[in-house]
Every structure is written in C-alpha cells, then in structure tokens.
Design a protein that fits this description.
The complex is a heterodimer of chains A (327) and B (377). Chain A is 75% helix and 1% strand. Chain A is mostly helical and 327 residues long. Classes of the chains: A mainly alpha (327), B mainly alpha (377). Chains A and B meet through α1, α6, α7, α12 and α13 of A and α6, α7, α11, α13 and α14 of B.
Amino acid sequence: MLNFILRRTLIIIPMIILISMISFLIITLPPGSYIDSYLANLQQMGGEVEQSRADTIKERYGLNDPIYLQYWKWVKGFPRGDFGMAFSEERPVINIIQERIGYTILISTLTLLFTWILSIPIGIYSAVKQYSFGDYVFTFFGFLGVSIPNFLLAIIIMFVGLRFFGINLSGLMPVQYMGEPWGLTKILAVLQRIWVPVVVVGTAGMAGLIRIMRAEMLDQLRQPYIQMARSKGVDEIKVIIKYAARIAVNPLISTIGWLLPQIISGGTIAGIVLGLPTLGPKLYDALKIQDMYLAGTIIFFNIVLILIGTLLSDILLALVDPRIRYD
Amino acid sequence: MKNNSSESKITKDENIVMSNPFKAKSHWQLMWEEFKNHKLAMGGIIVLILLYVSALFAGFLTPYDPNERFSKFQNIAPQRIKFIDEDGLSTPYVHPIVGKRNMETLAMEYTVDESQQIPVNFLYKSDDTYNFLGLFKTNLKLFGSDETQIFLFGTDGLGRDIFTRTIHGARLSLTVGLVGIAVSLVLGLFFGGISGYLGGMVDNFIQRVIEFTLAIPKIPLWMGLGAALPQDWSVIQVYFAITVILSLTGWVSMARVLRGQILSLKEEDFVKAARAAGAKSGRIISKHLIPNCMSYILVNLTLAIPGMIIGETALSFLGLGLKAPAVSWGVLLQEAQNVRAVAQYPWYFIPGVFVIIAVLAFNFVGDGLRDAADPYH
C-alpha cells in the first residue's frame, strides 16, 4: 500500500515539470510584455519614464533572453518558493498565491462535497424508482444545471438576491469584515455567501454524477447477490443502502479526476463574476495586463491542485475498494 | 411526363420492399425510430431548427441594423405587440414610447403612451438595407413601423435594439460550436483512430496526452489563450482563433470514444478479412472502422457543441473573445456583467436566456441520440 502511494506520488513530478512548461508557454504567447505596455502607458500620460528601472526589471527576469533561458530563470526558483514578481503589485507572486489559494481549495472542496451529497441519493432514488415521475424531474433539473453556464447562474442568483431580497451576494464577506480577525460573526457572514459559488459550480457537475450513480446502481441491483439478499429476507432499505449503494459508490470516487478540472474551471469564472478572493479573479486581472509571472503561476497552481486531488482520490479509492490491486 | 410516372412506380415498389417484414431495417432507420420516441430530443430538434433558421434570416426577421443606435431611446423596456384593444381583436399594434428629460435629475424618463395605437406594418420597407443570404441587397423586413420604433426585447445603454442584436448574435454564437466541432472531429478521428488501431507505444503515448489534456481546467486555459490573441485582429481572425482554442480541448473526448469503439471492432471478422485482402491501415480505419462508429461519433459531436457555445460565450463575456463591433451572445452579455445594471434593466439578460435554450436543446438532442445510438438491445 505504502509502495503504491509512493509510486503514484512520484509520477506527479514529471507531470509538474510539463505543467510548468505549458503555463510558461501560455503566458509568453501574447506579443509584448508587461514592461512594454507599462512604459507605453506612462509615456502616454506624460509621466517620467524610469528607463533605468525598466531595464533593471528586464535584466533581472531576462525578458530579452531566448525563451528557454527565460523559462529556466522562472522555474529554477520554484523549489525555493520563488515564482517571480507580480509586476502590477510589486511583490512576490507567492504572497498573492498564499492569500488566495486557501479560499480556492475551500470552495472547491465544498463544491465537491455538495455535488456528491446531492447526486448520490438522487442517483440511488432514480435507479430504484426508474422511469418514475421523480426520476424524470431530477433528470430534467440535472440537464438544466448542465445547460446554464456557470457565470449566467451566478448572475441570476445575484440578481434574485438583489432584486427580491435586497441583499448583495457578491464577494465572500461584507466589506466591514475584510481584514478583521476570524471570529464567529465573520464565519457566519462568510457562510451566508459561500453557498453561492458552491451551488453555481456544483450544479454543473451534478447531472453527470447522477447519471453515473444511477447507471451503476441499476447495474448492481440486477446482480445475483442482491437477489440472494432479498430472498434471505433482508430489509429492502438495507439491500439498497448496505449492499448495492456501497458497491455503486466506488466508481464515483474515480470521477474526481474529471470533476475537479470542471470545478476549478467553473470556480474561476464564478469567482470573477462574484468577485471572490480566489485565484480566478487574479488570473483574469493578470492576463489582461500581461502580468506574466502571476498569470503563469496561477495557471500552474490550478493544474497542480487538480493533480493532487486526483492523487488523493486514487489513494482513497484504493482504501475503500479492497478489490483494487496495488501492483 | 413518361419519366415521371416510371419514377413514381419505382418508389412505390421500394415502399413495398420496405414494408416487407423480412427486409431488415437499416441502422439509421432503427436509430431514427428510437430517437422519435424521445420527446425532449424531438423538442430540442425543433428548437434548434428555429434558432438556426432565425440566425440565417436575421436580416429579414429583425427591424434594424444590429449596430444602429437610437440615442433618444436608451434602456427602453421591452415593448409588447398587442392584438386586443377595448373593441376586442385588432390588427397588431404597439403603444409608442415617449421620452422626457427629468429636469431635476437630468435623466431621461420613458413612459408608454397608452392612448395611442400604432399599427405594426408587416413586410415593411425599412431604411436599413441588408444582404439577403449573401445573394442580393434588400430592405424588406418582416415587420416595422414608420411612426414609431419597435423594441421587442428593449434597448441597451447605447439605444441599440436588443432583439435585433440577439438574433444577429446567434450567427456567431451558434456557428462557433459547429466550426469548432469540425476541427475537433478531424483531430479526434485522426488520433483516436490511430490510437485504437495501432495500439502499443503509439496508443500509450496518445492516451497519456489525452489524460493530461483532461486534467487541464478549460476556462483558465481558454482565458490564457484568449488573452494572447493580438488586439488588432479582425473579427474573422478572432472567430477562427477561438474555434481553434476551443478545439484544443474538444478533440479529446472524441478521440477517447473512437479509440474505445475501434478497440472492440478491430478484432471483428470483417476487419481481418480486409487486412487479409491487403488493405492498408489508413484504408481500414477510414473505410471500415470509422463508418461503423458513426453513430457514436454523432452522439459525441452533439454533446460537445454546447460546451463550445458556452466557451465562446464565457470568453466573449470576459472580454477575452469576440469584441464589439462583432455581435455574439457573449458580447451582448458583457452588458450584464454588472449585477446592478441587470437588476435595473433585467432585459439585458435576454441573450443569456437564448444561450441557455440553445445549450439545453443540444443536450436533449444529444441525450436522445445516445439512447438511440445502440438500437439493437
């Protein structure tokens, strides 16, 4: 088992190198650089161009070097936690990541739990009562969830909140709590709003999960061991929950692999629309002003988060399903 | 005449053969019969046909040019075309909108003048000439009026007609998915085909690439690539660049489905026979294996289009995709970015309703096709 975990973890290392390359490639694609547009802006406004400062920055990050050298200069700081400088805020990228990655992980995890907690019972219900009215209703709402783009759902919820309840749901907490130490009132204030991104992003993945759970459940209910249990006179509820659902849930754990990219992806745009203190809005700002190291590092961390999540789900699957072999 | 009658005789004969119980129905006939029973999917097909036809005839169906500004009519609420007045049924009419400047706040205030009824003219000759299907120029519109403006979905902050813009926006928004899917299809068929058929090292490598691509979150990737598009590109260039960006992740699911199908098909006798007859790999894949996977490919295509429509809308909404003067649903929704604006002028959201309807319709059709793809069990 330990061997299996170790091996799965080691595979991640080449993946991380590949991700750093892709992230770097994406941020070097736009013509020009932050320094160029920064200087152009200053000149336009008639400001003093600090040519020496610009040159220092360019020199330091080797913005005039060939691309592979620039890449090397960026990644060689990674092991030390140095991801370069965020030009716009004039501080290390890692500080911005540290401030925001916690919220991204929190919202993603809550979304994952929300999706599961709702789709597993719905999947079981839809399978047990196949083709019933409830089955159709859930299927329809599942489709609706997939079909409403995350950012439109965010706008709809904010609109309803503002128009019919007079509450502003954007952000993660009311302005007066920002910078305050964490306390009960602050946690309550956050809880009042954090459900919005969770619901917005969660509904998108739910239909797929319900579908898988329903199909697995139908498959299990046809198995001979279920018939056996029923003929022994085991209570029907117990047959469904302890026998069929217990096995049907296993493949769901492996869906983290595709659910997580979806959650990070949806969370990015929901974060922008809702103005959350997550990585998404920072990525958006950074891309717009070509703050390349900040943008690249956020893309990098987004994918790394997914890899770690997938790794954890593999280990979890091995733990709950004794049929999985480690070698 | 003689020709005609003999032709009709042949079709009659064919009908007899068709109704012969011993004649097997073709795969596509079985699929169609299965598909017809799926009511939501049939509804989806009808909605999609309506949407694409309106996009095609946008110039005729809408009263104005999509970028025409009515500076005296900003943020007008949707107007209703009415059929019933105090005397009962009437020819369709609208109440005109009267704008007056509030001298205290200096803002324009609009009221609907209920006392006046202005008839709507159908097949109306307007001032706006447009190119009908790219064939000829005309100024004939489905409806309009000389005496007043008609804004079915209201107007935006610059006084542009949202109805006109929404219908015109369908052109870019609904075709971006089709072009994107065509690119994905070519990539998916190629990589899925060789991956499934050749197996071994090639398969292993392509599988790793696919797994890796699936782990990349789409929106951040699309945003990064969208931000890289040069600012001075024309609408057409940006349009095709976006389809390529969307296809970069779109081909993967296609390749996976195709690989799975080909893996199970390639040991079949007809493939062995083709190989024994000396057919080359490329020919076996394209002439024998892919046609046999057609129904699965079709399902996958249909289910991939909505993702692309959402992708374009999201990118343009964020300002990283299509930009004005291009008119797409995402561009229109930029107005809805500010929730306070939406709360004040809810009709800004109407293009969003169209996005949801189109995506829902594609998903229903895809679901119906998925159920019908395997009509034999």
